[in-house]
Write the structure tokens for this entry.
Amino acid sequence: MTKSTRVDRCRWCGRRFERDSGPGRPRTFCRRSCRQRDYEARARAKELGLGDAELVVARQRLDELHDGIAMLEAAIEDVERDISEAPDDPAELDRALQWLLSAARPLANLRLD
Ligand SMILES: [Zn+2]
């Protein structure tokens, strides 16, 4: 039997991590601190009478998430237009790709904790 790894997403922060498919319960968090935060959030939710699927998130983090999504939506619209207007212009496509990446990166790096 070969030992294989598969990539999972941390249940708390969403970061990707490799997990061994060895014996025992599979890891669902990338770090011990994420498991701890998840535990604390669940305990807090229980105190507040929230359901297991509900989560208390700082307003500032949620605002950052919404801002990031809005920026990404705008970039997607721009890039779709650029591609349809200049489908054969490599310089334009490169510029569009860079713009899309610059809009997507803040979201990829955003953590809610
Ligand atoms: Zn994590």
Helices lie at 32-47, 59-85, 90-109. The chain has two domains: 8-14+26-56, 59-109.
